[in-house]
Give the backbone structure.
Amino acid sequence: MKDPEQTIGKLIDSQGVAFLSSLDEDGFPNTKAMLPPRKREGIRVFYFSTNTSSLRVSQYRANPKGCLYFCDRRFFRGVMLRGRVEVLTDDASKAMIWEEGDTRYYSQGVADPDYCVLRFTAGDGRYYSHFHSENFPIP
């Protein structure tokens, strides 16, 4: 892969779903389909909205290790990113990714206590395309 940032960035931006994994109290992975990230910084940092009361939030608070996966079914290629997830509840982070219409999920608006942000920071990844996989670091 010549330019991971461009190749993987294009793949990510064309997907309507992301798969985010956490670890439960027994160390088993738990994977959940999520709406695409609200914001991303290259292929290193991704921001998602979710409910503070969710199972994932409690799992990330106990163990921040996570995995993020994007799959392009049309061309049968995908990227797995390994990293850490932070649960952000500060006003600035919540306002940063708030979108019009989010009140259908968080009735009290951006200040809703059940609204928080997950910030996934990748450390490395693995890309699959054309029957070939390759690992890559993320600086």
Notes: Residues 2 and 8 are 11 Å apart (CA to CA).
